Amino acid sequence: MRVFNLCIFYFFCQIVENRGSRQSIDIHYWIGNTSSQDEQGAAAIYVTQLDEYLGGSPLQHREVQGYESPRFRGYFKNGLIYKKGGVASGFHHVDTNVYNILRLLHVKGRKHVTATEVEVSWNSFNNGDIFLLDIGKAIVQWNGPQSNRREKLKAVLLAQDIRDRERGGRAQIGVVEGGDEKDSPELMKIMTAVLGQRNGPVREATPDDRSDQAQNNNVRLYHVFEHSGNLVVQEVATEPLTQDLLRSSDCYIADQRGSSVMVWKGKQASKEERREALNRALVTKNYPSSTSVKVMSEGGESAMFKHLFKSWRDKGQTQGLGTTYNVGKIAKVDQTKFDVMQLHARPELAAQHRMVDDASGDVTVWRIENLELAEVNRRTYGQFYGGDCYLVLYTYQRSGQQQYILYMWQGRHATTDEITACAYQAVNVDNKYNGAPVQVRVVMGKEPRHFLAIFKGKLIIFEGGTGRASAVNPDKGARLFQVRGNDELSTKATEVQARASSLNTNDVFLLKTDHVSYLWYGKVCASVVGRAMSDVLSKQDKQVVMEGQEPAEFWVALGGKGPYAIYTSPPPQTEEPLHSPRLFECSNQTGRFRMTEVDDFTQDDLDEEDVMLLDTWEEIFLWVGNLANQYETKEAWNSAQEYLRTHPARRDPDTPIIFVKEGHEPPTFTGWFNAWDPHKWSVSESDLSERH
Question: What are the chain's domains?
Fold first, then answer.
């Protein structure tokens, strides 16, 4: 618990090893609602001085009472208490055995609790929140009828903290349920003696006086620079932003329509620009005083800032599956080979490479036929048609127990009814295995790594048609398949239009005609798996054709020779964008979809009443607690799609969405959390029944 006075400001500095494996420093300065303009100005000056003393690397956070960032609130696990008064009362020593106290605390918040001193009167109460009547030797907690289980628990922890810290553990704590006051007659006598007889019912619940936290996809970038001795602020771009817009010689302001403002300071920017960027951020657009402002230097960007950009690459970042280790300010690059045998022992590796295992488990494939499940012949496993939808159940062992992943593959040309039936049948399969499978939505052409790996280099995606035995696909004449991959864990063949413009020098292509098949190798292709895939695609004799040595019949089959993409060097290995994972609590309590970020998250932040969204950039995880709101659970898929649609970096709407239930988390999920406890939610049946 931390006590803050309303008329003064505070500094809070945290030094941790958590930003890209580098030492990071966060400076928070907190401003009370009734603090003076001079005090607020002094705070900004002292922050700048402290920032310069620390070498300009700290990430600065401007915190305003009632609008604190999730990171700031997260420092105080038992909650914040806002006290009336200023300097005169703010620096008095807190005596731990004084009982001559009378105050009423208004408690709000589900993740991070705040308690504000309010008038000691029944007029301060409402049905939606929790109130602590503190009379020194006793603390009475009154729970509004519309408050939820977690809010009540958080309030109890706050009351216990007050008792232990301020009363030496000697105060008594009592709880009154606002909807059943008659069940606590003795406690109600105490409340009546202090507050007087209540006249009429308690006020109805009031919504939080907080700005809407729905994701804002309207982002503008402003350039702050000196011109003829004056400091100029000029708009330079709107979303999606690209990293090359930022120049080291200047400062910039990223504005999410006033809901969040971030100031970026280039390493070579002048002292005037660096000092005045924050003030300009607040003054230029006339933002309200409650606006969240973060100030960061080049090289010390926050995850939230990087997420505003379409792509982001840090200095020293490697490509492919290498690993960068940072020690102080010197980065040592160690290109380590990806070893699938380490996945179970190191969940963080499984998360990084999106692989739960080495893909050696059991696979069962169904196709949606007449809106029902029809099992696919094992001889055709790995062949997916754009006019179909499929369910793929993958079963593997972890710690001696069977685990399941259920992939829902949606063809580009499947009907709406088939896509709906695919989701419905996924629920049936999920129920058959008692809710254990992790569900993954896969859009045609956006198959995740593990999905590719389970078909051992034999994944073929046909542009259209159907794989149903009774169906006759129209004869398309010549067919062209692009083969891409570095090994059997990453290879797939995708049908493309059979024309010359579909070729490119980076890949291998198989051209299949009625009489012969051609295996065409681009001049700088890096693939070594073309031959194995071609044997799956065609049983015909295959002519190997090197780029530039094509026979005339090859071009005839493609409708004539024509231009195509030509490269002079091999493609780089897949580059991983350096985007830190972000965790959000999803809620519809206000009648619209809202997301609240959880900073520095741990497993403890996954509450059983929640639906949580974990964004690892390449994938979106939806984690659903066992006691989660039924409507939020039902709407979870829509929430994830809404999150992608409104993301300021214009994210790919077909990013894989993975549905995870409490107690059935795969290593690709748990690996993003430090010190994951697999037994955290292991309870007996009797315990479970008591909780319900």
Answer: 215-312 (3.40.20.10), 360-558 (3.40.20.10), 582-671 (3.40.20.10)
